[in-house]
């Protein structure tokens, strides 16, 4: 009996580790010819330098080699003999090697790395280098990825630099450890035990981020608590910053605009008030004394009830610039969010952020970057790109994606978000003519901005597997990869993640990659096809709620967004409606305005169409909509079928987890389909077309469902 129990414990812990290890599984390389290729190419490792970062790089190499190849090559401090792997920053390389790498060194920036096979003094060597130690660490992780994904190392010749400066996670973590819109447990940050207790998890978090090039983290919720800025908490923040530093990760905090009142005993937080200005300067000095490389502040102001400069008759520029002055002496930045809309503004909510921010172009201090959500409403399964992208040539704009799946099935649904991210980044704003993609706005190349960045609202919590769903790990991974290179194809991301997380078996990769690539369209289909948006149930946003119409703010009601009536469905943002289309460049405005050219996937975002409107495939809008809902359900079934065939490639724990989660996803996809179609059918008055399954329950039943404890709704 004891034996069985012990066995259970051991097998539980080794299996559970797999989930915990994310994409850094370092599985044994199965292909024997590859193993000998690897072993012949790095008989020993030469590590140059001894900073903490370099030690981390060395440790990573040892772990990687031991796990993947079964032994650790000899570690040396000088280059003798053949087939070394030489690891160290540029300043530690001999002048001959530097000369060899001359043309690559000029190509990379401070965080960029080189991985190159060279022939040096007639001997073959592989060099991993960069201008800084953190760049070397990035190089090491990328090198290990080559081995993890079973690629050849014969002729390595890589020089790769991140295209954006700030690659940052936004944690919506509260000080009581709840996570707003968090579906993977509680916050990682154990404020109670900090600063004295350093959880291994902090180190593992930093390592995972460094492995994908994330270099910043905002520890606290945008709906901010001023207490984080008190000495009691800053001491804890400092402890985290010390853990993250060698991994190249800077710490940032959210600044509650009313902090001078709440913790500073001032009577006002007016950004033009001399005492307020001084208070923030002192606060910045205090923070930088503890954390010299503190990144800066992220601010949500005058948005959804958060305090801001408008409380004092000032504007966003006044607020952002005041904070920018406070952190400028320390090279800090202010990430000022453009997620604003007001219940007092009768205008289409989709137009409000643009209307408010665009006129501020060129008015922000140079260490301010305006953080814009990918779409004009709110992290929906599909939104056209935000019209602010490309429309503020004199202002650096950073992208805000949501990695946590607030509106995409929480951490229960398998949805591969890099596909969504790619769609946005590839969108052409036409603001400087054809080819003015969102990616070019973000990486600064369109308008030559110096300050650039991408933020992702984290999906990480203290669940054993970090993200709730094993496949939600890829959304963290893919976010990091796209922050590094916003031009990366999401299929490559899926491929490398699957290999690093599960298996290099081609049969497994091919089929599972297919369902990942399709998963985003599936969720759009079973939740909000053809441009529908924001019809989730209210507050927690769990499940469908297209009928909700009684909330105090009109633009919080799903009925505001779909506008279904007996004549049809959709939000008319064309010239005959709210005219939101004119916030885009002329070419794009025309495209969306005209039904002939507007992509059908965006129809109901821009147009109110009759139930009988003929779609390109000849179906009426009603039939087309119903068939899309059904297609979404079918796609989930296909995902289940594919997954059920993978048992031989995946450990039983993760196999079963995903299997159970897909069952829930299937149930919920049907719930979405049935609830939405029954509700919209009241207006269309039409039968469901052939091919669409009959609803399993009545509309009244779906409307009666309540979820008072749905997660993430703080
Ligand atoms: C919405 C979330 C809310 C956030 C808000 C934001 O529902 O919890 O506070 O975005 O981004 O989507 O500020």
Automatic annotation (TrEMBL):
The enzyme's E.C. designation: 3.2.1.131
Protein family per UniProt: Belongs to the glycosyl hydrolase 67 family.
Organism of this sequence: Flavobacterium procerum
Every Glycosyl hydrolase family 67 C-terminal domain range: 467-692
Catalytic activity: Hydrolysis of (1->2)-alpha-D-(4-O-methyl)glucuronosyl links in the main chain of hardwood xylans
TM spans (from-to): none
Domain of life: Bacteria
Protein name per Swiss-Prot or TrEMBL: Xylan alpha-1,2-glucuronidase
Keyword field contains Hydrolase: yes
The keyword Hydrolase is assigned to this record: yes
Residue ranges annotated for the Glycosyl hydrolase family 67 catalytic domain, each copy included: 147-466
A GO term for molecular function: hydrolase activity
First-level EC class: hydrolase
Subunit structure: Homodimer.
Domain annotation Alpha glucuronidase N-terminal: ranges: 22-143
PANTHER family: ALPHA-GLUCURONIDASE A
Key words of the record: Carbohydrate metabolism, Glycosidase, Hydrolase, Polysaccharide degradation, Xylan degradation
């Amino acid at each position: 009996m004891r034996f069985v129990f012990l066995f259970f414990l051991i097998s539980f812990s080794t299996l559970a580790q797999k989930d915990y290890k994310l994409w850094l599984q370092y599985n044994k390389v199965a292909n024997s010819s590859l193993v000998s290729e690897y072993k012949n190419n790095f008989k020993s490792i030469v590590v140059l330098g001894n900073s903490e970062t370099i030690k981390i790089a060395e440790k990573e190499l040892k772990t990687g080699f031991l796990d993947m190849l079964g032994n650790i090559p000899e570690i040396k401090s000088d280059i003798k003999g053949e087939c070394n792997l030489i690891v160290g920053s540029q300043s530690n390389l001999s002048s001959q090697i530097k000369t060899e790498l001359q043309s690559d060194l000029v190509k990379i920036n401070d965080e960029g790395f080189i991985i190159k096979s060279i022939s040096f003094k007639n001997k073959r060597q592989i060099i991993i280098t960069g201008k800084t130690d953190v760049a070397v660490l990035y190089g090491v992780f990328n090198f290990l990825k080559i081995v993890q994904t079973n690629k050849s190392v014969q002729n390595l010749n890589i020089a790769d630099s991140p295209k954006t400066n700030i690659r940052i996670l936004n944690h919506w973590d509260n000080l009581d450890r709840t996570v707003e819109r968090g579906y993977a447990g509680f916050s990682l940050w154990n404020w109670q035990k900090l600063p004295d207790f350093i959880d291994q998890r902090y180190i593992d978090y930093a390592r995972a981020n460094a492995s994908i090039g994330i270099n910043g983290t905002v520890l606290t919720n945008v709906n901010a608590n001023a207490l984080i800025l008190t000495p009691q908490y800053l001491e804890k923040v400092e402890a985290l910053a010390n853990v993250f530093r060698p991994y190249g990760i800077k710490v940032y905090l959210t600044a509650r605009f009313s902090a001078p009142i709440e913790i500073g005993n001032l009577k006002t937080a007016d950004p033009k008030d001399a005492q307020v200005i001084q208070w923030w300067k002192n606060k910045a000095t205090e923070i930088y004394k503890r954390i010299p490389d503190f990144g800066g502040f992220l601010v949500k102001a005058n948005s959804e009830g958060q305090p801001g400069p408008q409380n004092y008759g000032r504007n966003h520029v006044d607020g952002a610039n005041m904070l920018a002055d406070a952190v400028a002496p320390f090279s800090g930045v202010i990430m000022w969010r453009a997620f604003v809309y007001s219940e007092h503004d009768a205008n289409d909510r989709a137009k409000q952020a643009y209307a408010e921010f665009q006129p501020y172009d060129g008015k922000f201090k140079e260490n301010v970057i305006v953080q814009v959500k990918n779409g004009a409403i709110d992290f929906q399964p599909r939104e056209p790109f935000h019209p602010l992208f490309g429309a503020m040539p004199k202002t650096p704009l950073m992208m805000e994606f949501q990695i946590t799946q607030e509106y995409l099935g929480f951490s229960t649904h398998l949805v591969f978000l890099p596909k969504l991210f790619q769609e946005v980044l590839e969108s052409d704003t036409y603001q400087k003519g054809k080819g003015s993609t969102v990616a070019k706005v973000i990486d600064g190349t369109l308008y030559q901005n110096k300050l650039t960045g991408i933020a992702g609202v984290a999906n990480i919590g203290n669940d054993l597997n970090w993200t709730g769903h094993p496949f939600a790990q890829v959304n963290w991974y893919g976010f990091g990869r796209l922050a590094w290179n916003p031009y990366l194809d999401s299929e490559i991301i899926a491929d490398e993640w699957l290999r690093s997380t599960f298996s290099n078996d081609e049969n497994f990769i091919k089929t599972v990659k297919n369902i990942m690539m399709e998963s985003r369209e599936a969720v759009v289909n079973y939740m909000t096809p053809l441009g529908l948006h924001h019809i989730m149930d209210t507050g927690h946003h769990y499940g469908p709620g297209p009928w909700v119409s009684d909330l105090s703010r009109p633009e919080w009601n799903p009925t505001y967004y779909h506008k279904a009536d007996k004549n049809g469905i959709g939000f008319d943002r064309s010239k005959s409606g709210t005219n939101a289309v004119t916030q885009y460049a002329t070419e794009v405005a025309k495209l969306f305005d005209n039904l002939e050219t507007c992509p059908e996937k965006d129809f109901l975002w821009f147009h109110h169409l009759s139930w009988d409107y003929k779609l390109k495939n000849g179906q009426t809008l009603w039939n087309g909509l119903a068939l899309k809902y059904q297609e979404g359900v079918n796609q989930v079934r296909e995902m289940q079928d594919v997954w059920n065939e993978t048992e031989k490639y995946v450990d039983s724990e993760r196999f079963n987890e995903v299997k159970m989660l897909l069952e829930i996803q299937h149930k919920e996809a049907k719930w979405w389909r049935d609830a939405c179609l029954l509700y919209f059918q009241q207006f269309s008055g039409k039968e469901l077309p052939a091919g669409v399954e009959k609803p399993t329950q009545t509309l009244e039943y779906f409307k009666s469902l309540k979820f008072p404890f749905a997660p993430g709704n703080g």
